[in-house]
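Continuing the series of single-chain predictions for the mutant panel. This is the parent chain; the variants come on the following pages.
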Amino acid sequence: MAVTIVFLGPLRDMAGADAIEATAPITWDGLLSAVNPKVAEQLRDDRVNVACAGRVLADKTSLNAQDGDEVALLPPVSGG
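Parent structure:
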């Protein structure tokens, strides 16, 4: 039973991987424990979003990913 955690943009560089697997189910606290401390620090930023099973969570602390879900970590969008 696993959840795939996908790192996008600069979070991928911080994580040193495109994705990792974590034991399901996974909550917000479990997500913070599953990723390295630098990524966990970024996740606490309000501008970083979390999507689960293709849906961006309005409240990322409500994360409750189940077996087979993909959790995508979405860094802030920059533009110019």
